[in-house]
Amino acid sequence: MLNKRRVLTLLVPFIIFIIGAIFLATPLLKGSDPSKLDSALIGQAVPEFTLQDIYDADKQYDASIFKGQKMLLNVWATWCPTCYAEHTYLNKLAKQGLYIVGMNYKDDRKKAIRWLKDLNDPYKISLFDKSGMLGMDLGVYGAPETFFIDSNGIIQYRHVGDLNDKVWNDKLLAIYEDMQ
Amino acid sequence: MLPEIGQFSLILACILSLLQTVYPLYGVHTGHQGAIRSAKIFTILQFVAVATSFVILSYSFLINDFTIGYIATNSNSALPWYYRLSAVWGAHEGSLLLWVFLLSTWSIAVALMSKRLPIESVARVLAVLGLLAFGFYLFVILTSNPFDRTLPYFPIDGRDLNPLLQDFGLVIHPPMLYMGYVGFSVAFAFAIAALLEGRLDSAWAKWSRPWTMAAWMFLTVGIALGSWWAYYELGWGGWWFWDPVENASFMPWLAGTALIHSLAVSEKRGVFKSWTVLLALSAFSLSLLGTFLVRSGVLVSVHAFASDPTRGLFILGFLVLVIGGSLLLYAIQASKVKSRGRYQLVSRESVLLINNILLIAALIVVLLGTLLPLVHKEIGLGSISIGEPFFNRMFTILIVPFALFVGVGSLFRWKRQQLNDLKKPLTMILILSALSTVIFLFTFAPSLTWLAVMGTFLGFWIIVGVIYEIYLRSTHRHRFSKGVMKLGNSHWAMSFGHFGLAVMIIGITMTQNYSIEKDVKLAVGEHIAFEHYDFHFDQVKPHNGQNYTATMGVFTVKKDQQAIAVMEAEKRIYTVQRMPMTEAAINAGFTRDLYIAMGEQLPDGAWAVRIYYKPFIRWIWLGPLLMAFGGLLMLCDRRYRSKKDNIENSENSENKPAPVGGSDA
Amino acid sequence: MIQLNKVNKLLPLLLAACMILFSHTSQAAIDTFEFENAQQEKTFHELTKLLRCPKCQNQNIADSNAELAKDLRNKTYELVKQGQSKDQVVDYMVARFGNFVRYDPPVTPATIFLWLGPLLFIIFGLLVLIRQIKKQPAKANNLDDQEQQKLQQLLKQHAKDTKS
């Protein structure tokens, strides 16, 4: 004989389990990577900084270069193999007219300049962050990363990993176009 | 040729496990005796098949057969033979083969050692075990086949076993741990069998108990080994990180500890039956959850196997079927169970249930702490981390009521305990433990902190409680020396189990409060002194091994001016993977460990050296060993021996009036 | 049989390259910082255990050898030396890397379950215990179904025996 009320009480573990299972299934079905982090700076302006130009040590830039138009900030380094893989795509985006600022992160100046010479320089401005201080202020945790910055200098999105056709068309293009 | 036989054997085992499930259940349903008896035969055959697979894989590792992809990825011809064998379970596919092999081992043990049980019950249990095995075989064959060949191209040498795993720890930790994980499947199977039969009397609890205890023992030892291994291997002197994979092993242990106590009550008093069944289902479910967490890639962990969403989904599907199915069955069948015993609010039953509640509360802490980051991210609130600070704080809070009850719980009588009768024992224990705490801290602690006082007091509260209870039980009817001889093994099991917990609590307290860590710059010839010890950096010399090159730093240690040890710390580079590794030098002692790890050489020629002083850290693993020994004693209790002893024992059980402290655990 | 020596040489290189990007070496990362007082040293050690390395496979910045962990340790040392408190340093890191970087989760409506969950369970468990005790029948029903059946059989047998 089934005591309905008792059965319902005893069904609680089952229900809790099913809810848990759904939460476990979702990231698997979405294919999400638990080690990818959202930027803590979304909605905030690019932090203040003073960095040298990569070619000319006497030239310096500060956060004002991010105002005036929407742009991408690409964090890269010569020791990063994925950056090598994404470079052709950056060239393609630059040819399409996108304004891209490059930030060389914790790298050797000579190596970086040679890299840009050999592979083409898609960057309108190239920052040289040897110590990684702007990187740390931006919350960079692994090259390559690309920040989407609007015309007011506000960070709207941060993409971790390389830029390629698929991720650009599936997701990032929409974000870029929505930006002011 | 051999790997193909291994693979075929695996498929054979898979088919046999399916037969092991279906045919006996059909037999039970229709009363066909032959079908019922076939359970045992299929179990034995399945064991032979999977054992063959396992042996073939092990042999292939031994002879360096790099045509097998799994071996090429995880071994190397320069690897010493004992690590070549341990590498069998060094990565995903092989460890799953170990899992399924051990499942078969437990199944055959149940088949061969259940002569006193009704044959239908055994058939049901074996059928459930067969179903579990079937799921795992499918998983291995379809997604994680260890026998996949790399032909027609294959490497002339393997990629070598991860240097971190090239250690004695790999030889013993996974097998022990898996024996525990997998062993809970027996308790699970007994619970399902009882639910299927619709019968949850104390007989079920009695049969289930030794199997559950054995599994719990292995898990206790397995976790302790893992902690010890991490301590000496990783070079940061830590012994527990609350990493998701560590938590995945700790959760079944918490459920299992609650289960062994709840089973005792269900067997003796016939109460808590639905709760005990739920615990039995949970313990193994948590083992399965652990398997999922480690292999699916949903959580970030240093321990995780190479992850793959497809595998994750497969395991999750299996989880939903097994756990979901069992919980549904539970809801329907357990609602029909009536408990027949009675007990008051102040009684041993209550105390055991309260500590059960605390254990499960701790389980919830670990479960939520491990899974909330995932949920938090899924619902779009961003990434968070939950680690040591959180878990340590919660456990520090929970251990207080828990330890207090453990210390005196065995003084409570079954059914009803008059609080007045406990006044004298409680006062005695309070005074003695306070005294012991004071003496202990005065001797060993350089300063006092609140946490140290509390932790030490709780530890001694339990120790004094255990000793006092032994004294009371022994002197109830005889002189002490005679009475103590008459205490059964299961009573000693309880005493050792609780005593082990106390030892561990004291070890954790002392290490957490009084460890000293010094990161210093030392040039050869310099020395550093603290806490009565002087460490002198003698020399640096090369010291190479079979598959690595190393630089060794040699230190002479003096205590109060007397030289007591020479410690050698290495910095190794493993040749194949080019991975640098620290082999810390440890001078182990009963009351303290000295620990030296070599860092990098600095530009001026001096070396970065880390020196630890870790008081009572060995107690953290001694405790679990004592607990496991208690478990072993329980298994050796007379009631599980010959039939004659069994009859004698049942005459001595609950029917006689219980003295203070009640009948034994 | 094609011998892929080239592949074998590349493999360790590739592995090393991956390790720079996804470093997980669990090596003792030993820096030799010097502190002005014991309190600063204590705060530093607590912080390096509390802060998580954002790109490692679950390690705090004290235990990781990753380049980023090293940078964070240096930054932590710098801030502690300036006299900043533990909370201030944590806030600094969280402002840049988000809550992921602290192992001690903030108390928010979403995370409150971490503390509420076990507490509610304990309260619930105790209530159930008390209710179970109250619900017990006045007269002890000491036999379960199996034993009840046996009792009936014995009584029947006894009745038969006394009759004959």
How many strand elements of chain A? 7
The major pleated sheet of chain A works out as: 7 strands, mixed
Largest sheet strand order of chain B: 2-3-4-5-6
The ordered string of helix (H) and strand (E) elements of chain A is HHEEEHEHEHEEH
Structural class of chain A: alpha/beta
State the end-to-end distance of chain B.
Answer: 54 Å
DSSP summary: helix tally of chain A: 6
Quaternary structure type: heterotrimer
CA-to-CA gap between the ends of chain A? Answer: 67 Å
Q: List the helices and strands of chain B in order.
A: HHHHHHHHHHHHHHHHHEEEEEEEEEHH
Written account of the structure:
The complex is a heterotrimer of chains A (180), B (665) and C (164). Chain A has 180 residues and is of the alpha/beta class. Helices cover 40% and strands 18% of the residues of chain A. In chain A, strands 2-1-5-4-3-6-7 form a seven-stranded mixed sheet. In chain A, helix 3 links the parallel strand 3 (71-76) and strand 4. Chain A starts with a helix and ends with a helix. In chain B, the strands form two sheets. In chain B, strands 2-3-4-5-6 form a five-stranded antiparallel sheet. The longest helix of chain B is centred in the N-terminal third of the chain and has 33 residues, at 202-234. Chain B is globular. Chain B has helices spanning 2-30, 33-62, 69-74, 81-86, 92-112, 119-143, 168-197, 202-234, 244-269, 273-296, 309-334, 348-378, 388-409, 419-444, 450-474, 480-486, 489-514, 619-635, 643-651; strands spanning 516-522, 527-530, 533-542, 548-559, 562-574, 579-583, 585-587, 592-601, 607-615. Chain B is built from 19 helices and nine strands. Chain B has three domains: 2-298 and 311-333, no CATH class; 391-514 and 619-654, no CATH class; 517-616, no CATH class. Chain C contains six helices and no strands. Chain C has helices at residues 5-21, 38-50, 67-82, 86-97, 113-135, 145-163. The longest helix of chain C is centred in the last third of the chain and has 23 residues, at 113-135. Chain C is rod-shaped. The model of chain C is unreliable at 1-26 (pLDDT under 50). Classes of the chains: A alpha/beta (180), B alpha+beta (665), C mainly alpha (164). The interface between B and C is large, with 79 and 69 residues.
